[in-house]
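Weekly modeling sync, notes
Attendees: S.R. (lead), two postdocs, one rotation student

Agenda item 3: backlog of single-chain predictions. S.R. asked that every request posted to the team notebook include the full sequence so nobody has to chase files. The rotation student volunteered to paste the first one in as an example of the format we agreed on. Action items at the bottom.

Example entry:
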Amino acid sequence: MTVQVVLVHGIRTSATMWRAQVQHLTERGNPATAVDLPGHGTRMAEEFTLAGAFATIDGAVRAAAERGPVLLVGHSMGGLVSIAYTGQEDPPPIAGFIAASCTAIPRGASLATYRLLARSVDALPGRGMWLADRMLDRTLPPETREDFGAGGYAFDTQDVALRSLSVLDLLAALQRIDVPLWFINGQYDQLRVNERLFTRLAPDAELIIVPRTTHLVTAMRPRVFNALLDLAIATIAAGVSGADG
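Predicted structure, as returned to the notebook:
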């Protein structure tokens, strides 16, 4: 059976950030679904809630699972929510999971500092987009630059979403994940802070560090990330074939 892929975006962005990956997966024959979480992209007018985020991921996963084994891929906030979703006591129908740029526990002083920084940038003229655009122009290649923000930026959702992450019990969830798991981080990613803890709690997971890359590993090095998708798909496909044999 063909591996299906479900992609979950990070905070403020939308499903459009995955266009390079969707194109790659489509060309290699693996159907891909990139979701918009509540309050983001095509759902900008909605309120962000964890329940709504879980329901969105679950709906996409279960629809895909009817067609084949599912690889779930989450980036940043989408990765954190996907860790909690994948590590439920009643596990969802997932055959493999990539958690990108999300090896950090969103609680305490680190979360408070991140929220303060986000609010400070949001208070700048034009909500700080001149600064964000300058940084993205410098770091993202032409093949992903426009796609990254094509669905708009969820400024009004950001603080609510960040605050909601503090209730996630990621440590318990990580210990319950029983499918092939890959942590993928950029070398200079600020969310590598709890990387060792995450890999200790999920000892069978693979940790892959992409050199010369920041937090935006999917958009900054799309071809490298696509190759890692290929690795995960091949691993899942081999496992399915082995089970069938």
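Discussion: group reviewed the output briefly. The first strand starts at residue 4 and ends at 8.
Action items: rotation student to repeat for the remaining queue; S.R. to check formatting next week.
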